[in-house]
Design a protein that fits this description.
121 residues; alpha+beta; 4 helices; globular; Darcynin family protein; Darcynin
C-alpha cells in the first residue's frame, strides 16, 4: 500500500424531495429564493466546492432531485453541509432523503491500483 497519500476529493450525492412550500412558488420565485437565500450562504461559508443538479421526479416518487457536490476535502464538505443547514433549502424547501458520500476510486487509491472504469471510445 502507498504511504504517501494526498487528500481525495469528496463526492456527495444529496438526495432530496421537494416540499409543498417549494412547489407552491412560481419558477421565478424559486429562482429568487435559491439565488438570494441559499447561494449567498454557501458562497460565504464554504470553499473548494462545486455542484451539479439532477432532476429525477419523472423517474422516482421518493426522490425528486439529486444534488451532486464535489468538495476538495472532508473539511470543505463539512462546511458545505453546515451552510446548507442554515438555509431554507434544508427541510423547508426540500426534505433531505439521504446523503451518500464517497471517494471516487477509493479502493484503487488504497491499493495503488488503476481504477476499474468503463470509458467510451
Amino acid at each position: 500500500m502507498p504511504t504517501d497519500r494526498t487528500e481525495s476529493p469528496v463526492t456527495a450525492f444529496i438526495l432530496v424531495k421537494t416540499t409543498p412550500e417549494w412547489l407552491a412558488m412560481t419558477v421565478a420565485e424559486r429562482v429568487q429564493a435559491f439565488t438570494t437565500q441559499v447561494v449567498p450562504v454557501i458562497e460565504a461559508r464554504t470553499h473548494g466546492v462545486r455542484s451539479r443538479f439532477y432532476d429525477t421526479e419523472f423517474y422516482s416518487a421518493r426522490v425528486t432531485d439529486i444534488w451532486v457536490w464535489e468538495a476538495d476535502d472532508h473539511d470543505a464538505y463539512r462546511l458545505l453541509i453546515d451552510a446548507l443547514r442554515e438555509t431554507p433549502f434544508w427541510d423547508r424547501y426540500f426534505t433531505v432523503v439521504d446523503l451518500l458520500v464517497g471517494i471516487e476510486n477509493g479502493y484503487a487509491r488504497t491499493y495503488d491500483l488503476e481504477p476499474a472504469a468503463t470509458l467510451a471510445t
